[in-house]
Design brief:
Layout lengths: L26 E4 L4 H11 L7 H10 L6 H11 L8 E7 L5 E7 L1
Parallel strand pairs: 1-2
Antiparallel strand pairs: 2-3
Helix pairs in contact: 2-3
Length: 107
């Protein structure tokens, strides 16, 4: 239904399509900006705790190192021997405003 302003109420709003990125990638290196950012990305992209382990550990150990955090995360995954031959890795970094970049690697 609509409210008094003619706006659609959230109960009838169409939920945006969000792909299941877990079908495309085995590993995620998400810029470790803050716990809140990681929590929201995990919730919205429906990622598991394991998917964000490298990001959370990087944030815990080094803090917000800006977009370079994705390289600490990749090193974490490699040190834990989680990356196997043929695995796909998505590195996702973002900044203020609308800046967002990503890289995809195949091991």
């Amino acid at each position: 239904g609509s409210d008094q302003s003619g706006q659609q109420s959230s109960s009838n709003a169409t939920k945006p399509y969000i792909p299941d990125y877990k079908l495309a990638f085995e590993h995620f290196c998400v810029h470790a900006a803050s716990k809140t950012v990681l929590d929201e990305l995990q919730r919205n992209l429906e990622l598991s705790d394991e998917n964000l382990e490298a990001s959370r550990m990087t944030l815990h150990r080094f803090g917000n190192t800006s977009s370079s955090s994705i390289w600490y995360e990749l090193a974490y995954l490699e040190a834990k021997e989680k990356v196997r031959s043929g695995d796909r890795i998505w590195q996702l970094a973002f900044g203020s405003g609308f800046k967002c970049n990503s890289a995809v690697w195949k091991s």
